[in-house]
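Recall that a protein's primary structure is simply its ordered list of amino acids. Everything else, from secondary elements to tertiary packing, is in principle encoded there. The following example makes that idea concrete.
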Amino acid sequence: MAFGETFLHYPDLFPVRRSGETWGGESLWVDFVGGPYRFTGLSADQKRALVARFGPLSCDVPPAVTADVVPISIFRVGAGEFRGVELRGWHYTFDRDYGADAVRVAGLDFMGWIDFFPTTRGTFWTPLGSLPDDDAVACFQCQVENYFRLLVAYRLVALGGALLHSAGVVSELGASVFFGHSGAGKTTISRLGQADGRTVLSDDMNALCPDGEGFVVEKLPFAGDLGRTPGPRSRHRLRALCRLRKGPNDVTPLRPASAVAQLLASAPFVNADPHRLESLTDNLESLASRVGVHQLTFSLEGGFWPLLDALEPRAAVTAGP
């Protein structure tokens, strides 16, 4: 199936120019890793919806440091451009078309571009400008969030990091990040962390970025069942990175090649982009070598946290490939 055919009546007419009629004159700053991000062209309803979604991360005035602003322009598009999609039993996704200089995306009631040159910028078209009820607000928030996740994934790669489909759990020792295939136990281990008195950043998406001493984890406004409540920016030293498997409690180091392959499988969106796959892989190799990656086999009864807390922070894996 060609790009856009799932969602658009006329995919061949996908906008080429990054322009159009705005919904209004409102703008909003959203400040977290990779940003700040500046939305323009919003209607009053759209702005209120985004403020409700992003909470303390949103503001009307530029953050103190705005050197790396990522602009996101919001434009109108008619509802008739989009196909109806039967949602029952459907696992939500969206179409992506990867180019050397830009990525275009189409989903439920939205179209968008992400351009990388000369700097990263976003363009987003939606038919939802007036949001008369809670259902319309939730639909608009979902549209923006799905597009925003994609854009943030690319920003993190540009910063030397990665967006990881993972659970992030914090103790006084630092952050532990757990990844693995669907059903591996990310939400389960997050709940076990809460029961142990630890803080859950997210059980769905976490941002991993390098700094001068290693890597840090920053809480994102994207989460699944846990960690969704909006809050101020929160970043923590990454001390443990573990692939999950259920079973008797055990922690073993992964070999470097296996660690990078497993991380790559959990780095959504960019891992399918042939133009930026090499950069993502380089970032994950740096992450694996500077932090170390382990396999955590954990019991649903708990009791594994002391094994993690005993790991030496920033212990690079030294086994051969």
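Residues 4 and 12 are 8 Å apart (CA to CA). The longest strand covers residues 235-246.
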